[in-house]
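User: Before I run my own analysis I want an independent prediction to cross-check against. Here's the chain; please return only the structure tokens and, at the end, one sentence I can use as a sanity check.
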Amino acid sequence: DFIEAARQYQAIWDEEGTRMVDTIETVSRLRFTETLVNAVVFEGVSHSHPLSLRASYSYDVKKATLIHELCHRLLVGNRIGVHDQADGARFVDEVQLHKEVDLILYDIWCNLYGEGFAKRQVEVEAARRPVYRHAFEWVLLQSREERARVFDELQQRGNG
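Assistant: Structure tokens:
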């Protein structure tokens, strides 16, 4: 089962990886700091670090999830959403982190695959966890221009 899923993710990457990266960088106005990322395909919750992708998702959800996890890696690489405490430890506010990702994620999905795709993926993600629903509800109260402005403010603050 995992071999077929890994082939699907590889096909997505081969066919659309360059376009995905270009769109993520265009919408975010950031550049990836990593040039090589290995991915693991398994049956569990997808994660960005290490990049771990759920095998059983549908083809469209695989695309959306890959983009979502790449957005997390982009933000971490650019020190957005990484907060240092006085003792040198790091912590992540999961709600805030997903708001930051979703500020760009929805528009990336729209640019790549259209608004219908983006709305369907919001429904998929919002059904997973209340944190995701809350983040998207907040993000989608704003226009595309407002989302871009808020994301720019995150970058200017240095947020790290």
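Sanity check: The chain is about 65% helix and 10% strand.
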